[in-house]
Structure formats: C-alpha cells, structure tokens
Amino acid sequence: MFTAPAYLSPSSIGTFRDCPMKFKFSRIDRLSEPPTWAIHVGTFVHEVLEHFYQLDAHERTLDSVKALATERWKAGDWETQVDSLIKPEGTIVDFKRQAFDCMKNLWKVEDPQSTELVGMEHEVDTDIDGVRMKGFIDRFTFDDEGQVIISDYKTGNIPNPRFKSEDDKFFQLTAYALMMQEADQETTSKLQLLYLKHGQKHEMTLTPVKLNIARGVIVETKEMVDASCESGEFACNVTKLCDWCFFKPQCPAHA
Ligand code: SF4
Fold it and tell me: Over the stretch 139-192, which tens digit does the pLDDT of each residue have?
C-alpha cells in the first residue's frame, strides 16, 4: 500500500495514463530523472522568451532576443549545465544553435511586437471535482471578447498523429483551461501549441464538451491512482517508448 500524491498535475496525469509504473517511479518513489539535452533546450528557450516578453513591444526584436539569450546563458551558468549532461547530443555550439533556431522561429508563429501576454508561468492550484490539481501555465493572453487564450512553447518534434490524437495533444492545455475556470473564473476560448523547432502554431477551439472530457479524465485518473496505491499494483505499459524511459533499468517489465 502506498500514499497517493497530495495533488496531481496535467503532466503527471499524462504520465500515469502513458505508464502507471513510470508514474510510480517518479511521483510515489520520488526518483528524480537527471535532465536531458531536450529538457535543457526547452528550459533555456522558455527562460529567454519569458524575459523577452517582459520588454516593451517595440524592443522585441531579433537583436534583443539574441542579447537576452547571451545574458541568460551567463546568469544561469548554462555552459556548466550543458557540460554536465550525462548524454550530451552535441557540442555547446550545437546546443546554442538549436536553442536559438527555436527562438528565431517565434517570428514564424506570431508577431512578438503585437502579442501582449497577460500571464507567464502562472501558477494554478485548484480542485476539480474533489481532485487537487496544481501546475504552471506557460503563458496566456485575452482575445477581443475578453476570453483567455492559453499557449505553450514546444521545442521538440510535433507528435505523429498516428500515435497521438489531436485531443491527446491538447489534453494538458485543456486541463489548464479547466483549472483556470475553477480557480480564476476565467473562460478560455482557444488553445495554442507553439512548435518552435518547426515554426508551426497548432490551435484548438475550446468547447464545453472538451472541458467535460478533460474533467472526466482527471477524475478517472485520480480513481485509478488511488486504486493502484491501495493495491500496490502499477501496470507496466511496454511500448517502443520504453527505450527512452530513464527507469527502464529498474522496471520489472524489463528485468
Ligand atoms: S520502461 Fe516502459 S514499462 Fe517500464 S516504467 Fe518505463 S515506460 Fe513504463
């Protein structure tokens, strides 16, 4: 018998639904995964763009994103962080190029000078039908009708539609929209995934039906987490993705 985590997040729900055993390793046993190249690229790009959008609109140029990247690189001692990676996927120059390509592609997905963000790294802590949910929303703004548009930077590849449906791809943002509705009484009209590596913006109009589906997924997942904690049984979902799972060496499915 295990104690269930005090709260869930949209990403931990995704982890449980992908593989309950992986959820156990990370959320119950609290085994931490060392950062990867991809996670570092994502974190660095997020950090620079968060500072970039704090500049006045007319200052948001390619030169200023370059200057901010240099500043944040030093402030966060990113050279040491990248050098310490267990599995580097290239040199420091490769890392900088990859991150900067993502930043440059921001201009392909929106006009930074006419995009005003209302919230960045916005914390939401709320209750969805008795399930405590916590997490951070990358960024949001308001549309002309005063409704929220939630967006998320992605620095990895666009998921293959054969393996991930449109609703699955937007599940985390839909869950955040529901959390914002409960916590801040704000209605969300649209969700955006900004695939910076490819310079593409994927959008989804939010409907009450989609919100209700997300509500059902949250409640159902919490019930499954509680049942697994009670029985001590966490299923292993063995797929090709196991080869990328940090916990594979200690996973019973691969013993
Ligand atoms: S190796 Fe595969 S089955 Fe095992 S925890 Fe990781 S994802 Fe799950």
Answer: 999 999 999 999 999 999 998 888 777 788 899 999 999 999 999 888 999 999
How far does CA 159 lie from the centroid of its chain?
13
Q: Whose CA is nearest to atom 2 of ligand 1?
A: 242
Point out the ligand 1 atom lying closest to the alpha carbon of residue 19. 8
Is residue 19 in a domain? no
Among residues 114, 136, 152, which one ends one of the domains?
114
CB 194 within 8 A of CB 140: no
Same domain? 89 vs 54: yes
| pTM recorded for the entire structure | 0.93
Domain of residue 135, CATH code? 3.90.320.10
- The C-alpha atoms of residue 2 and residue 10 are separated, in whole angstroms, by 21
> Domain range holding 168?
117-221
Measured from the Cα of 20, ligand 1's closest atom is 8
Q: Is the beta carbon of 237 within 6 A of some atom in ligand 1?
A: yes
Token reading at 52: 């970039």
Tokens of 118: 């209302």
Q: Any idea what DSSP says for residue 169? A: H
Atom of ligand 1 nearest to the CA of 247: 6
Looking at the 3D structure of the chain, how many domains does it have? Answer: 2
Report whether residue 242 contacts ligand 1, using a CB cutoff of 6 Å. yes
Whether ligand 1 lies within 6 angstroms of the CB of 236 is answered as: yes
